Amino acid sequence: MSSINANRSVEAQVEYAKIFLWVLIAAYGLFFSYLSSANHDHFSTNAFDLGIFDYAAWNNLHGNFFPGLFIGLPSLFAIHFQPILLPLGLVYLIWDDAKALLLIQSLVLAVGALPLYWLGRQQLNSWAGLVFATVYLLFPALQGANLFEFHPVTLAAGILPFAYWYLHQGNLGRFVLFSLLAAACQEDIFLIVGMLGFYLFITQRDWRGLLVGLGGFAGFLFLSMVFIPSFSGGETHFGLHRYQALGRTIPEVVQTLLTRPAFVWQYIWSDPDKARYLTHLLAPVAYLSLLDPLTLLIAAPTVAINLLSSLPTTYALDRFHYSAMLVPFVVASAINGTAFLVNLVHRKRGFSKTFLCAILITMILIVTLGYQLKFGHTPLAIAFQWPTPQPSFVTGRQMLELIPADSVVSAQTNLSTHLTHRPGIYLFPRLTSELYGPAQYIALDVSGNIYPIFDPAEYQRRVSELKVSGDYTVVFEQDNYLLLKRN
User: What confidence score (pLDDT) does residue 17 get?
Assistant: First the structure.
């Protein structure tokens, strides 16, 4: 009878943990959907990057595949391989708004907590699984990516946990399915898929893992060295300029890494921000990830890509999208590391596994909350601020409603994301193209972000010239918003 009651107690705990898990997932999805939508409504999203992906996804739905005209490129493939934008365009059949992408991003990241809960429950217990799912959802690197507009690669952070889980379960079909789905988010995810394949080969002695590993790395090299340059008209991937200190081509960069390790070590650790990146990456899980180095190594290519870059945003850990796909493997390795430590201390010292697990997950939860307090993007964080609407935002939306849906538009970056559901749109100061001709409307926020113009005086000069040129007439001017119509 006691064993039956014990089993019932365990089953009840599992059910309670599942309820809490779904509450957390729903809370994350709703909160970050609201926050990212509010940022968009407050004109805090820009052409780079929500605009270019919204423009491409909407045009894909209407038969104009992966266009780059909006930012002056022949194709979006000139900068990235992101076929996930094809199915994403279908969302506009339900909701024809850029905020649909922001909603999808929040929901995909939220459900990424599920497989990490399953892993924690399998390796430890259901409450440990719940704690690690919470750690994932509270990871500032994940939250920062969620709020940094929209990027297809960010979706991979919610998809890769499923690939890792099914790999662990020996379900090769689902592992391959989720791996391909993740790889469709961006070309560098092929490297992580390759590492997952090598992990499968090493841990399960499955030769198919070796094929996945080699295929993943070969796919990345083909896309970066052949496919993307063929669309950009260049000889290398557009982002390779960030690695000029190591070489001018991918083979040269790899050669430097293999033959000059001391130089590479100095190159990384001489930058305090890169040192902080390394020391903070595992902090939310109290560095327990180090007890499962094999899982942690799956993320090594992304860590290298970020740390070897000269672009500071790539190694700003908690603010941008470059580190989001690391989070699942940091958390998964922490789960395995915790299970290893619990079993080790139990064998050596005889302590109860339940007691040891409770101590460790309590410690991890406290550390995660402390890190969230300092660097997070929720009301738990010290620096968090609720988005505040301004009366001028209403004026801006009123101005945008004056622009016909089928007109050709040139728009300032923070206004462009509200106008990208059309074939003909240019990022101001560009005003024309051979394909769609001159802009019929020019939408400006003279107090907003003026990128890609960097000099405020130059921006003001161009605006003044347009107003007196005779080519355009002012049809709206209020609260720093300016709309010009072509005569």
Answer: 87
* Full 3-state SS string of the chain: CHHHHHHHHHHHHHHHHHHHHHHHHHHHHHHHHHHHHHHHHCCCCCHHHHHHHHHHHHHHHCCCCCCEHHHCECCHHHCCCCCCHHHHHHHHHCCCCCHHHHHHHHHHHHHCHHHHHHHHHHHCCHHHHHHHHHHHHCCHHHHHHHHCCCCHHHHHHHHHHHHHHHHHCCCHHHHHHHHHHHHCCCCCHHHHHHHHHHHHHHHHCCHHHHHHHHHHHHHHHHHHHHHHHHHHCCCCCHHHHHHCCCCCCHHHHHHHHHHCHHHHHHHHHCCHHHHHHHHHHCHHHCCHHHHCHHHHHCCHHHHHHHHCCCCHHHHCCCCCCCCHHHHHHHHHHHHHHHHHHHHHHHHHHCCCHHHHHHHHHHHHHHHHHHHHHHHCCCCCCCCCCCCCCCHHHHHHHHHHCCCCCCCCEEECHHHHCCCCCCCCEEECCCCCCCCCCCCCEEEEECCCCCCCCCCHHHHHHHHHHHHHCCCEEEEEEECCEEEEEEC
The pLDDT assigned to 232 comes to: 86
Residue 429 and residue 410: Cα distance in Å, rounded?
A: 7
What type of residue is 255?
A: Q
> Cα(329)–Cα(196) distance, rounded to whole angstroms?
11
Spell out the residues 6+ positions from residue 157 whose beta carbon is closer than 8 angstroms to its own: 109, 112, 142, 145, 324, 325, 327, 328
pLDDT attached to residue 350: 86
d(CA 403, CA 423): 14
pLDDT at 3 over 60: no
| 337-362 confidence digits (pLDDT tens) | 999 999 999 999 888 999 999 999 99
- Whole-number Å distance between alpha carbons of 334 and 212: 25
Q: Can you list the positions of beta strands (E) in 291-364?
A: none
Does the N-terminal peptide bond of residue 429 adopt cis geometry, omega within 30 degrees of 0?
A: yes
* pLDDT number for residue 237: 79
Q: Which two tokens stand for residue 13?
A: 């705990």
pLDDT of residue 234: 74
CA atoms of 392 and 330, how far apart (whole Å): 42
Residue-averaged pLDDT of the chain? 94
415-467 pLDDT per residue, tens? 999 999 999 999 999 999 999 999 999 999 999 999 999 999 999 999 999 99
- Which pair of tokens denotes residue 379? 């009301």
**Residue 118 neighbours by CB under 8 Å, 6+ apart:** 129, 165
- The answer to whether 308 and 268 are in contact (CB under 8 A) is yes
